[in-house]
User: Fold these one by one.
Assistant:
Number 1:
Amino acid sequence: MTKRAFPPGFLWGVATSAFQIEGAPDADGRGESIWDRFAATPGRIADGSDARVACDHYRRWREDLALLRELGVNAYRFSVAWPRVLPRGRGAVNGRGLDFYDRLVDALLEAGIAPLATLYHWDLPQPLQDEGGWGSRATAEAFVAYAEAVGMRLGDRVRRWATHNEPWCIATLGHEQGEHAPGLRDPALALRAAHHVLLSHGWAVAALRRHAPAAEVGIVLNLVPAYPASPSEADRDAARAFDGFFNRWYLDPVFHGVYPADAVADRVARGHLRGPELPFVHDGDLAAIAAPTDFLGVNYYTRAILRSDAIPEAENAPRTLRAPPPEGLTDMGWEVFPAGLHDLLLRLQRDYAPASLLVAENGAAYEDPPGAAGPILEDPRRVAYLRAHLAAAHRAIAEGVPLAGYFHWSLLDNFEWGHGYTKRFGLYRVDFATQARVPRASARFYRDVIAANAIALEP
Ligand code: FCB
């Protein structure tokens, strides 16, 4: 066994999001979110479920904190639910909603666990959707007021903030593919929504800096490296187009203050834009979006392999055009491709040079093998996934990438959006009938990695 040590002070964490774990939609004055509405709409969620209970984390958070301690993480990424803080999206702050995160942050700090708070992990207050949602510039303004409210309450203790989680999913899955709330299918609207999300990011960076001057602020993007299926020019162009649509549409404005011209041209060609002028971009927007940040959070799950004759009308999911062996897919149908994480981190460093990087999510959905029973559930595929991705991350660090931390998705099985409870990502299994949490072997594996600040590679 060879050991690979991580840098001293490396952040080891797990990630969760409010809507996926909290439940308690009516507690302490919380308002309705677009995901409450979406999940209540028949046919939207694969198993017909909703997140009214989810992991009951709003009530059981102390129990979940004990799991964090058991893992030995020194960091925890969670999200704040906007509808708890501003039940109508704007206006009067609901202090009781903030109290929940206030207590959580204090308890984390007492346990020596550094909080990383995400302001927006998709749960827009429904009243804002009723006024146009992310399609409306006013929502970006409302987001800043929300950021102010949270920053004012928690900014003295939370030292790491992410504005948004995965703008691509907000825009494309929510407004173009209709697979996520608000369930719309309008490509032109999706581009406008993406812009307002990015704009609100830039504005919120400034707001957070006012209330938490010493804090690190960044954004979390889901990035899918694109590989051509062959070296042919046509396949390489297909990969370029996918990369432009999926990755550079967000990276370029945030780091270079510009939308990628080739991807804009692709959208014009598809009729989603009238011309290269983006009508929703006002003077000063791109400068605001490119506000300097302290880290880029990367959510990495898989890659895409692109073939020219298969450029889809709308690329909604990473697509693998050569079928990999069945054991090479997770239950999401995503190819396991650890080298993609290494390649992606190097590329980000080369093309964008963020001040630092965090893997803000990485993980795998696997059903437990039949007959698996407690006290520890064997999940060898998740252990292998975790080990291989940590090895890839380590390789990137050794090659000079300023990767400062890794957050595994997720602590617990939870409400996996349109898939309901059918996809299990947890280091801990949740029995949704009893709310019992049972550790998987991957939790033990991760605990040992954290304790050693190193991974042992198999020979
Ligand atoms: C990411 C989301 C996260 C979870 C994982 C599996 O896109 O940020 O909430 O659903 O995928």
Number 2:
Amino acid sequence: MLPRLYAILDTSCFQDNQALFWTAEQFSAAGVTLLQCRNKSGNAREMLEQARELKRRLGDSVKLIMNDRADLCLAAGFDGVHVGQEDLSPEGARKVIGEHLWLGVSTHIPEQIKEADKTSADYIAIGPVFATVSKANPDPVVGLEGVRNARTLTRKPLVAIGGINRANCRLVIEAGADSVAVISDLMREPRKSAEDFFRILG
Ligand code: TZP
Ligand code: MG
């Protein structure tokens, strides 16, 4: 089962790796157990070094998911990979990571949800639910209605993403998401804000 909060560490939010590692440790202290590493700007070698250090610091207490890159997921000893519509296909990624690691798939429209539902994905992400500043060229917002509709299209665990914060997260769970994936609203005071999410989402 997915935890209610799926924290995403986006490299572009940090001055340097030290700030990123500190934030990851604050999340862990708050009880975060599912964390995605999202690095859209580093080269592969930098991404791997960063990922390995994250793994070294967090150990096995946090499930670590690599964004986009199945190869780096394996090389860093992560627990899974998350692919979007322009990354390796779910089955391609599955071939790389094997049977046991986690595979997440991003979707934006009903057709993609139905497709992802037929794959070996362990969870499906739907979004952006609300407007977001954390993604370049985001797809159109799907709203709470998009989450409700996604819930009818798959029985896989459903992660909602995009513009989710402490003020709106309950509505997102009530619309049928199992978990909320969050970047911005965890950044200012990572430990406190993650604890707030857990308190709000019970
Ligand atoms: N995919 C859809 S929206 C988004 C991603 C990666 C960004 C989510 O970030 P935030 O700051 O929680 O809106
Ligand atoms: Mg991607």
